[in-house]
Write a structure and sequence with these properties.
The structure is a single chain. Helices cover 48% and strands 15% of the residues. It is built from 8 helices and 7 strands. α1 packs across α8. The two termini are 24 Å apart. The mean pLDDT is 94. Bound molecules: adenosine-5'-triphosphate and magnesium ion (MG). Magnesium ion (MG) binds next to α1.
Length: 235
């Protein structure tokens, strides 16, 4: 516990990259305290598993690969037993596996790039979360994470999308993941942003700061929802 689920019914939205960045940063922070992370790959394309199997993956990340709709609940329970954090990387379609994983989420992070298609698919994912909430009669906390943003400018379309999400009362991460070569690099070469060679990749410090800020905001959201749960339980 807690279970953090990365979802978006749109392929290529940035789920795997964000899941890897969070797993790496939590593992880095947890290492001195023997705190570990389980990373569950539920996508048939196994993109996060491919990263975790490359050299340089932190040794306190336990990978569960080839999870599917039949195994996912057991996989999440196994992750809960063995690690302090469970991170689930989902496929980019709506499926039984996606619905099952969401049902166990303490936080669903919905990836959205600055296009209307991404925003529309984010809303579809939110509708699925809301249906699961009704079935289970419990709140499933979720938040939209903007990714591949430009640090220098916020294009008009992105401003419009953020306005629409705000108007609908949908929670959006304060930080976004910037479009960075460092984030692409770890997917190709393995390892973590902090281990990249500054002679080979530019902007490593900024990328590491960005991944850290994202992780801190995830931790804050998890604490807030636990606090809300405790308040309800205590009447
Ligand atoms: N913040 C970022 N900076 C730079 N490149 C990024 C970033 N986020 C994602 N990408 C790139 O965009 C592509 C798609 O990202 P990613 O694989 O994370 O998406 P996904 O939602 O997991 O896709 P799929 O639905 O196929 O599993 C990848 O090539 C990745 O390197
Ligand atoms: Mg993926």
């Amino acid at each position: 516990m807690p279970n953090i689920i990365f979802a978006s019914s749109k392929g290529g939205a940035g789920k795997t990259t964000a899941a890897i960045l969070l797993a790496s940063e939590l593992a880095r922070q947890g290492k001195p305290k023997n705190i570990g992370v389980t990373l569950i790959d539920v996508d048939p394309n196994q993109h996060s598993a491919k990263w975790a199997l490359k050299d340089g993956c932190p040794d306190n990340i336990e990978l569960i690969q080839k999870a599917d709709e039949e195994s996912i609940i057991d996989d999440i329970e196994r992750g809960d037993e063995q690690s302090a954090f469970v991170i689930v990387d989902l496929e980019g379609t709506a499926s039984m596996a996606v619905a099952s994983a969401i049902s166990r989420a303490d936080l669903v992070i919905i990836l959205c790039q600055g296009s209307q298609d991404d925003a529309d698919e984010a809303v579809k994912t939110i509708k699925l979360i809301n249906r699961q909430s009704k079935v289970l009669r419990r709140e499933i906390p979720f938040s939209v994470l903007l990714t591949r943003t430009n640090p220098a400018i916020t294009p008009r379309t992105l401003r419009h999308i953020v306005g629409e999400l705000n108007a609908a009362g949908i929670d959006i991460f304060k930080c976004s993941l910037i479009d960075r070569e460092a984030f692409r690099s770890i997917r190709s070469f393995g390892g973590t942003v902090n281990d990249l060679n500054p002679k080979e990749v530019s902007g490593i410090d900024k990328a590491a700061t960005n991944a850290h800020a994202f992780t801190e905001e995830v931790k804050k959201k998890l604490l807030e929802s636990q606090h809300n749960l405790r308040s309800i339980a205590n009447g």
